[in-house]
């Protein structure tokens, strides 16, 4: 049985939104990550239901992918809360630099939000009456952070470690290093005394050694052939968009590949541009296989009902 301190509540979300972690004590009610934009109202409702008349005091973002910060703007409009983001993203958010921020490049949306402070590796936060050390977690995203509580032996791992893997290694799609960083983050986690991981997606888990073994194996598999990471990225981003839109035409998905820089980079690693229609067809057919997340309905791709 998974046991959490009374000061921690985990709102486990579907794959379109990251999990939200609500930590409360007498001094502060804080939410780690806020889910995707289309679920912002639901996120607010979950927080309001749990806090009652108490306001939300603080948002902490582990990183600024749209599924982790898409609820920031609405929560900031609802409560006069502080917001802490990774320090290395401060200029991009202050200027709302959509070239440096990943929303447009991944074909996703995020309403503009502000921040009041930053966090970086080595910092300490008191959340839920517990001391949390901020750890760097590059690999999936070069700016990503994790939170580790040594006293409770809990790690909020974001997308650096899931029970079965980790997030797409996006830097590798754009010619930057990411596999080595992910390997190093996993090695860091392996050295920590962790009894419970709260991942960015999926249920909290305690089988840490097995999860790390699977993750190390996956890093090695991806490094052996980087096109595997590219294909996985396209699958993830296509499914993400279908979970949001519920249905899209093949030609709309194909246009997304051209418009979204990250998807374009991934597709270019796999096939010349003239072969992208066949590439999309192949990927969607794989995703529409037995128990897959998508269905093909003529010229449309449809997300299966959960």
Which SSEs are present, and which pair or pack?
Blueprint: E1 8-11, E2 20-24, E3 29-32, H1 40-51, E4 58-60, H2 66-69, H3 72-78, E5 82-86, H4 90-95, E6 117-119, E7 124-127, E8 130-136, E9 145-149, E10 154-158, H5 179-191, E11 196-199, H6 208-224, H7 227-245, E12 247-249, H8 250-259, H9 261-270, H10 276-287, E13 294-297, E14 300-303
Parallel strand pairs: 3-4, 4-5, 5-6, 10-11
Antiparallel strand pairs: 1-2, 2-3, 7-8, 8-9, 9-10, 12-14, 13-14
Helix pairs in contact: 1-3, 5-6, 7-9, 8-9, 8-10
- Could you name the ranges where pLDDT drops below 50 across 5 or more consecutive residues? none
Run of helices and strands: EEEHEHHEHEEEEEHEHHEHHHEE
Estimate what percentage of residues fall within beta strands: 15-25%
Main pleated-sheet profile:
6 strands, mixed
CATH topology of the largest domain: Metallo-beta-lactamase, Chain A
Whole-number count of domains: 2
By CATH reckoning, the class of the largest domain would read Alpha Beta
Give me the side-by-side strand order of the main sheet: 1-2-3-4-5-6
Helix content: 25-40%
Number of strands: 14
Structural shape = globular
């Amino acid at each position: 049985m998974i046991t959490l301190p009374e000061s921690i509540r985990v709102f486990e979300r579907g794959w379109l939104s990251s999990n939200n972690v609500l930590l409360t004590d007498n001094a502060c009610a804080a939410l780690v990550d806020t889910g995707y934009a289309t679920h912002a109202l639901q996120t607010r409702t979950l927080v309001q239901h749990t806090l009652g008349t108490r306001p939300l005091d603080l948002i902490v973002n582990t990183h600024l992918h749209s599924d982790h910060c898409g609820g920031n703007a609405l929560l900031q409009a609802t409560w006069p809360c502080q917001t802490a983001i990774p320090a290395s993203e401060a200029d991009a958010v202050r200027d709302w630099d959509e070239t440096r921020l990943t929303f447009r490049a991944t074909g996703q949306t995020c309403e503009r939000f502000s921040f009041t402070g930053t966090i970086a590796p080595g910092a300490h936060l008191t959340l839920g009456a517990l001391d949390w050390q901020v750890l760097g977690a590059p690999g999936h995203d070069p700016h990503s952070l994790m939170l580790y509580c040594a006293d409770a032996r809990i790690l909020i791992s974001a997308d650096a470690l899931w029970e079965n893997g980790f997030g797409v290694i996006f830097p590798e799609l754009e010619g930057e290093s990411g596999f080595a960083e992910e390997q190093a983050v996993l090695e860091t986690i392996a050295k920590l005394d962790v009894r419970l991981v709260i991942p960015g997606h999926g249920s909290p888990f305690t089988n840490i050694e097995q999860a790390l073994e699977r993750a190390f194996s996956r890093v090695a598999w991806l490094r052996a052939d980087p096109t595997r990471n590219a294909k996985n990225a396209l699958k993830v981003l296509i499914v993400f968009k279908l979970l949001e839109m519920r249905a899209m035409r093949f030609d709309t998905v194909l246009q997304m590949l051209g418009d979204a820089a990250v998807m374009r980079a991934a597709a270019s690693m796999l096939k010349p541009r003239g072969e992208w229609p066949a590439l999309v067809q192949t990927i969607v057919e794989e995703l529409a296989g037995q128990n897959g997340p998508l269905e093909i309905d003529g010229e449309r791709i449809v997300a299966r009902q959960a």
